[in-house]
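Hi all, a correction to my earlier message: I attached the wrong file for DUF4188 domain-containing protein. Here's the right sequence:
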Amino acid sequence: MSEKPIEGRMTAAAEGDVVVFLIGMRINRFRALRSWLPVTSAMPRMLKELVKEEGSGLLGFQPVLAGPRTLAVVQYWESKEKLLAYASAQDKEHRPAWTAFNRRARGAKGAVGIWHETYVVPAGSYESIYVAMPGFGLGEATGMVPVGRRGDRAADRLKAA
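and the right structure:
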């Protein structure tokens, strides 16, 4: 995220459908460091890989501290196909991380939990506004344009497809 706020009312420059992927982990037992530390270190490797690879489909992401035990990442993707292709690719960081998590989870008895949710949002079914904000969320992932280009009201931006 850039640090300098952008003046005026802005909206995300996203075009077409957007895939929002929420993924996270919950530390259920803080003392079980060997169970949850590998999970926390796997996500940065995956994100680094995706950012470096042109055409990966990842538009952008936002880490979120969702509570004292829960870490999450909001990700924006070009398509569900690219998200699913990454998740199942044998030569990418995700598969070995998932395999290692499953192997450790069997002996960890719930020391760490993981979750994800995927939303395919059709064009015209999302809108955003950023006032005196640096790039953030969908706006940071896809760029930002003045609100007037998409409609001054949320209802106008939701109709635009």
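Sorry for the mix-up. The chain is about 35% helix and 30% strand.
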